[in-house]
Design a protein that fits this description.
With 396 residues, this protein is mostly helical. The chain has 15 helices and no strands. Helix 4 runs antiparallel to helix 7 and helix 13 packs antiparallel against helix 14. 58% of the residues are buried.
Length: 396
């Protein structure tokens, strides 16, 4: 595996830390800026909205930019907005920096995935994608808990400074390791042709299911800190541990799914979705029991990222003639869920349903995903849960 692919994973680690770290900083941000927990949660949604809008736009722009220049530009913008976010006393400015940082992150992803795939042979494309996406799971294991710990020790702003500082060596490594131009030996597909390919019903349904699955994930993940401190009864010092457990689960889920999905993608997605629906409901019911809560956080992290990664693979499989835009639309669907989940969780909290409410919303979203696959899978050919498969008629 080329060293440059691992460098891309390092940069994704820094950006993934920024995307997810707010789950451990919500109370600090809300108290410092004098806003509600729901408003603080919207900072996660704002980042996701920026990713949704930015993914297809920056993917189109990245078609003609030299790869190294594009990667360094997007990473530079990402660092700058985190410096502004660390300094501002205004919630509105912080919200704007989250959107701007997401646009830069989306641009980086759009170029990074294509760059990684171009640097390896056909038999290593899945591994290269896993290395890049693996930066996100490492962020969940190391970066997000570290950000929460920094927030506990020195305030939430220190986590923003840390993300900016970690991005600097990644930028230096990109400058050294990534080729400066675009490979001219690969056939180029027109943007209109790619967009037409993305209008296929099977692909659109997969993207919708993907958004629902990610919405369920981020609805609970964004409010883990108040759940474990105010329902489970852990002290604030336990928040990094709980976030790390979710990250360890996500890393294990991505690793295991990467080995199984090539052979049995239907089983991985179907079983994963069913288990996620059951698991979110179980977490809502047992959140007051520390051992059960910790075990379910670990398990749900593995199921969420393992299933989500396999759905991304399915998107590329369904759109082989849209190499540039397929990844951007998968990124957009991922972040539609990441935006809607915290918003719905915040509504449930604001309505006074208690700190378990976001977890129940996650269970409902997974129920909707399962219902959608059950109703439409026969016509669309998209994966359906195992319980929806018909058994063959007995022989006579």
């Amino acid at each position: 595996m080329p060293f440059a692919v691992h460098v891309l994973g390092l940069a994704v680690f820094a950006q993934g830390t920024s995307e997810f770290m707010l789950s451990g900083l919500l109370s600090g941000i809300a108290g410092d800026l004098h806003v509600s927990l729901g408003a603080a949660g919207l900072l996660t949604s704002a980042f996701a909205v920026g990713m949704v809008v930015g993914a297809p736009l920056t993917a189109l722009a990245g078609r003609t930019w030299p790869r190294r220049r594009a990667l360094l530009f997007f990473l530079g913008v990402f660092v700058a907005v985190h410096v502004v976010g660390a300094l501002t006393p205004s919630y509105g400015v912080l919200l704007a920096t989250r959107v701007a940082g997401a646009l830069a992150n989306a641009g980086f992803w759009a170029v990074a995935l294509v760059t990684a795939l171009d640097m390896v042979g056909p038999h290593q494309r899945a591994r290269a994608t896993a290395v890049v996406v693996g930066g996100v799971t490492v962020a969940c294991v190391v970066g997000v808990p570290a950000g929460a710990a920094l927030g506990e020790l020195w305030g939430w702003r220190s986590a923003f400074w840390a993300v900016a500082l970690v991005s600097v060596p990644a930028a230096v490594a990109l400058l050294v390791a990534v080729p400066g131009g675009r490979p001219d030996d690969a056939p180029q597909v027109g943007a209109r042709s790619e967009l037409r390919a993305l209008a296929r019903p099977r692909l659109l349904l997969t993207l919708l299911v993907m958004a629902l699955v990610q919405g369920a994930t981020f609805c609970t993940f964004s409010y883990l800190e108040p759940l474990v401190t105010r329902v489970t009864g852990f002290g604030a010092g336990w928040v990094p541990v709980v976030l790390a457990l979710f990250g360890v689960g996500s890393f294990a889920g991505v690793t295991l799914a990467g080995r199984l999905a090539d052979a049995r993608p239907d089983a991985v997605i179907g079983l994963g979705m069913t288990a996620l629906a059951v698991g979110w409901a179980a977490l809502a019911l047992t959140a007051a029991h520390p051992v059960a809560a910790l075990a379910l956080v670990l398990l749900q992290g593995a199921l969420a990222f393992g299933t989500g990664t396999t759905l991304i693979t399915r998107v590329f499989h369904l759109a082989p003639d849209a190499p540039t835009m397929a990844g951007s639309f998968a990124t957009a669907a991922f972040n539609v869920g990441a935006a809607a989940g915290p918003w719905l969780g915040g509504l449930a909290l604001g309505a006074g349903f208690g700190f378990r409410a976001p977890v129940w919303v996650s269970a409902l979203l997974m129920g909707a995903a399962l219902a959608l696959t059950g109703v439409l899978s026969a016509a669309s050919g998209v994966v359906r849960p195992p319980t929806a498969r018909r058994r063959p008629a007995p022989e006579r």
